[in-house]
């Protein structure tokens, strides 16, 4: 008897699943720490999950993500992760955890079911928990500021996105002042941060820690070749026409420049950090860093005209059609030695009105 469509599909899913399991077995047997292989391993795990899930599993998993994030945000607010990490290898009872947090025990145990299911801690017995490696990330600035930024600042805009796009007849937005973020909050992104100091500080902390443990632009850009004393890129400095090596446009508090200087201490020339005044106010450097902080709105013309390298790394525009305008504003007028311009990768959501530019 010929197989039905459902039977054929099931057989095909089994073949795909077994193939993915074999790929995962081989990848784990010969571990490769490169970011590309790490990403491919995670992609195969996601593919395997999709093959094994039935359609209802998938839609339920997607639908529950909002509530899962809310539970993690509550756990973060209550200090759950700090308490567990402080216990080290010792387990903590749900009742004791609730007492330490000042929360109702029944409520907290319900929150902890989600936290455990997401892998952010380990349940070692009935209502008994222990910290794991994922717990720790929620106790350091990188994890805390990242999650709070996504949830506190961007989730309200995401929740309003369907309503906003319906009001726009599903036309691609063209003005940052008329975006899902502005629709949800009543203000364009930067104005919103200016009016909400707590969220502004949170966003700046997120920007300062987001690349920790991941490749940065100076790990990819050929610094030794392009900015060595023999490189034509630094001719203006060697000729005494300029003392500026690099301008980091939208560089937040200058963490990239400090790390660059530490990794390449023999670089010739001064480095300039540019960002909005409220951000620059929190940047501080030692004299040996040779870094100067300069308030600058990157939608305004670039005030420095002699630059060896102009960096826009990880700078994301409000709308894709603003990118050309931004780069034209920042690129100095032609000189005998035009600056290199290194623009970082675009955020996946940069084509929507939801994600604002990143400094």
Give me the secondary-structure topology.
Elements: H1 5-29, H2 35-52, H3 55-78, H4 80-86, E1 92-93, H5 94-101, H6 105-117, E2 122-125, E3 128-130, H7 133-137, H8 141-167, H9 180-185, H10 189-195, H11 197-209, H12 217-220, H13 223-226, H14 235-238, E4 244-249, H15 255-263, E5 270-275, H16 277-280, E6 291-295, E7 309-312, H17 323-330, E8 340-343
Parallel strand pairs: 4-5, 4-7, 5-6, 7-8
Antiparallel strand pairs: 1-3, 2-3
Description:
The protein has 359 residues and is of the alpha/beta class. The chain has 17 helices and eight strands. The strands form two sheets. Strands 6-5-4-7-8 form a five-stranded parallel beta sheet. A three-stranded antiparallel beta sheet has the order 1-3-2. Helix 10 packs across helix 11 (197-209). The chain is globular, with a radius of gyration of 25 Å. The termini are far apart. The model is unreliable at 1-8, 313-326 and 333-359 (pLDDT under 50).
Strands of the biggest beta sheet: in what spatial order? 6-5-4-7-8
Q: Kindly state the number of beta strands.
A: 8
Mean pLDDT across every amino acid position: 79
Order of helix and strand elements from N to C terminus: HHHHEHHEEHHHHHHHHEHEHEEHE
Principal-axes geometry comes out as globular
| Biggest sheet architecture | 5 strands, parallel
Instruction: Report the portion of residues in β strands.
Output: 5-15%
Indicate the radius of gyration in whole angstroms: 25 Å
Count of DSSP-assigned helices: 17
Oligomer: single chain
Bin the helical content: 40-55%
Helix/strand structural class? alpha/beta
Ends distance: 63 Å
Poorly predicted ranges? 1-8, 313-326, 333-359
